[in-house]
Amino acid sequence: MSADSTRASIRAVASLAGVSPSTVSRALNSPELVNAETRRRVLECAERLGYQPNRAAQSLVLGRTRNVGLIVPDIANPFFAPFIKGVEAYFRDTEYAVFLADTDEDTATEVRLAEAMVERVDGLILCAPRMSGTRLRAIAAKTTVVLANRTSRAAPSILQDFQPGMDQAVAHVHALGHRRCAYLSGPANSWSNRRRRRFLGVACAERGIELVDLGPYEPRFTDGYRAADEVLAAGVSAVFAYNDLVALGVLSRVTARGVPVPNEPGGRGLSIVGFDDIPMASMTNPPLTTVAIPVDAVSRAAAATMHSMLDPGAPKAPPLPPAAELATRLLIRGTTGPV
Amino acid sequence: MSADSTRASIRAVASLAGVSPSTVSRALNSPELVNAETRRRVLECAERLGYQPNRAAQSLVLGRTRNVGLIVPDIANPFFAPFIKGVEAYFRDTEYAVFLADTDEDTATEVRLAEAMVERVDGLILCAPRMSGTRLRAIAAKTTVVLANRTSRAAPSILQDFQPGMDQAVAHVHALGHRRCAYLSGPANSWSNRRRRRFLGVACAERGIELVDLGPYEPRFTDGYRAADEVLAAGVSAVFAYNDLVALGVLSRVTARGVPVPNEPGGRGLSIVGFDDIPMASMTNPPLTTVAIPVDAVSRAAAATMHSMLDPGAPKAPPLPPAAELATRLLIRGTTGPV
DNA sequence: GACGAGTATGAAAACGTTTGCGGAACAGTG
DNA sequence: CACTGTTCCGCAAACGTTTTCATACTCGTC
């Protein structure tokens, strides 16, 4: 029921195999340095004793933990689930284990967690971190970090190219006849939010669409409720939400208020465009038109980058996927229609 | 950009403070053993050098890592998110860090991950593990384990009491006039599934409701699609799904096929009852009637149990919440109606 | 038959802590 | 003053590995 019964040490297998601990270590880590026959014997003895090298001792002498940390703002946000899974899947058949933590979208928690992790990992993957650039640099000084959805000179970052998706979305909405739209802003200190807003602004300006800013809102379903009423009050015919959760909140609330989605011939109604393409987005009624993010590519790229930074000679790890893979794109479904 | 620049060791602060390493260690860990003044000086020096004890060295000598592992079947299953958050929140202001891993609902992966974690943690919280009892015992022999949603003699388990919720659900459906219902089974080797099915069976038998078994299905939205068609073919007026994801899949597919939810006066239609009360459940149209699980209580109890097993003298950790807290209960929303 | 080049192995140091043991200083007691 | 007890602190061992260095042995080669 507990971790007692003194696990077999390297010395135990050494004496069982009639060799020195050094030889056991070599047999395990650098096979080419030991005689094939003794190696076989050592391995057999190790197997017999159920020998597992003590991680702490290895870490101590090697100066590395074989752990990597992964910090995301919110596990419950379905956008991050595939990201997490991607990273975990990458490291699964690696000697690394991954520490996952969730900051609850809170910057202070994020910093605390990052500090706590630094001591236990070789590298830290920060997904959409909100902390200040200074903090980020401080962390990056202490360990290897890779950023996703956030730029910084302190560490390499994996980014999506928001432009194509945003451009397609605006073109789509413009083609449907919308001329006055709203943007539901996400957290103010979020890099994603600023980028999305920027490209949206550019695309709208190019096409002569008037853009109303609302928010900021937390990227949660319930914040979409709040947003919905403001959207309706703002007198726009279409709305771009910071992300799908907010969009779905809007959809739910707007529908409940009897406003048709998408717009109806009579001029009433609202078109909604989300962002992320979370699984739920295709399950609603009507299904959500949204800008899809190549999250698998992003997570794999982040993991691979980390891996190759930690083990420069790693066998896996294509350095970086071609930029094209990271492009966003519009998925037209049921929540957008002609005005 | 990397983890170099040789962090300050305990020796460095010792020599700066003009004491021996032992004294520094004691000043940090057992304040009562050192003179107040020297302690102050040591602490100040440690602070000045930004000293952080080397975790690996501590682990090596203490034989404990101050890490706990948490393994769940699927992060993307929104039922687990609150569970994870609960555990993480509990350990946040503790000296423990938590390793989270996701098995992708795969037993082999689960075993692999558990094995990998055993070397890196002091204890393992297994949420709804699918592995065999034998395996479970093997793991429990190597480290401290706490189970959630799974019984075993090998380790303490935190369970929900499915009975009240199931009973309420059946009573509700019975009151609405349903007499022939289906159960959409979850994974065959899932303890939750067996329990849910059992109590459901009993409650239905008591009230003279005929119960049709369908499945098993994976607990995913898309499996709900598949299930929906079988449900419709089975000629039942109400269905109990293994969990909310499946229920929502059914809802989506059934609605798409033009079958009203809930039942209409004419005799057509279907009533749907889910299980878990995931956030999405209240967001659909109509919102899902479901059996809510006290997931916060379960996760906190699991974490607290682990904590008190690891540090018997822990200051926090109320041993176990009263059993009542762990009872499930029915949430009547929009997907159930009179037949 | 000595020598150089490999090849295979062991001894020991090192990694950074914690902690048992003992010693020094000091105060209190007879 | 001799003693006992306390308080504070340093020495050194120990934790389980990896790796450097040295050594012993085996082969060919001149």
Walk me through the structure.
Two copies of one chain form a homodimer. Chain A is an alpha/beta fold and 339 residues long. Chain A folds into three domains: 10-53, lambda repressor-like DNA-binding domains (434 Repressor (Amino-terminal Domain), Orthogonal Bundle); 67-160 and 296-321, 3-Layer(aba) Sandwich (Rossmann fold), CATH 3.40.50; 162-294, Rossmann fold (3-Layer(aba) Sandwich). Helix content of chain A is 44%, strand content 15%. Chain A contains twelve helices and eleven strands. The first copy, chain A, has helices spanning 10-17, 21-29, 36-49, 55-62, 80-92, 107-118, 133-142, 162-175, 191-207, 221-234, 244-256, 295-310, and strands at residues 67-72, 97-102, 123-127, 144-148, 157-158, 180-184, 210-214, 238-241, 271-276, 289-292, 329-331. Chain A starts with 9 loop residues before the first helix and ends in an 8-residue tail after the last strand. At the A-B interface, helix 4, helix 5, strand 2, helix 6 and helix 7 of A face helix 4, helix 5, strand 2, helix 6 and helix 7 of B. Chain A binds a DNA duplex (30 and 30 nucleotides) through residues 9-11, 19-23, 25-26, 29, 33-35, 38, 53-54, 56-63.
Oligomeric state of the chains present here: homodimer
CATH class of the largest domain in chain A: Alpha Beta
CATH superfamily of the largest domain in chain A: Response regulator
CA-based gyration radius of chain A: 26 Å
* CATH architecture level-2 label of the largest domain in chain A: 3-Layer(aba) Sandwich
Q: What structural class should be given to the helix and strand makeup of chain A?
A: alpha/beta
User: How are the strands of the largest sheet of chain A arranged?
Assistant: 7-6-8-9-10-11
Low-confidence stretches of chain A: none
The number of distinct structural domains of chain A comes to 3
Instruction: Name the chain pair with the biggest interface and residue counts per chain.
Output: A-B, 53 and 53 residues
CATH topology of the largest domain in chain A: Rossmann fold
Tell me the strand percentage band of chain A: 15-25%
What's the story with the biggest beta sheet of chain A?
6 strands, mixed
Please tally the helical runs of chain A, counting DSSP H or I stretches of 4 or more residues.
Answer: 12
Q: What is the share of helical residues of chain A?
A: 40-55%
Task: Report the average pLDDT across residues of chain A.
Answer: 90
Number of strands of chain A: 11
N-to-C SSE string of chain A, H for helix and E for strand: HHHHEHEHEHEEHEHEHEHEEHE
Shape of chain A: elongated
- The first-to-last residue Cα distance of chain A is 66 Å
InterPro entries (chains A, B): HTH_LacI, LacI/GalR-like_sensor, Lambda_DNA-bd_dom_sf, Peripla_BP_I
Protein name (chains A, B): DNA-binding LacI/PurR family transcriptional regulator
Domain HTH lacI-type (chains A, B): 8-62
Keywords (chains A, B): DNA-binding, Transcription, Transcription regulation
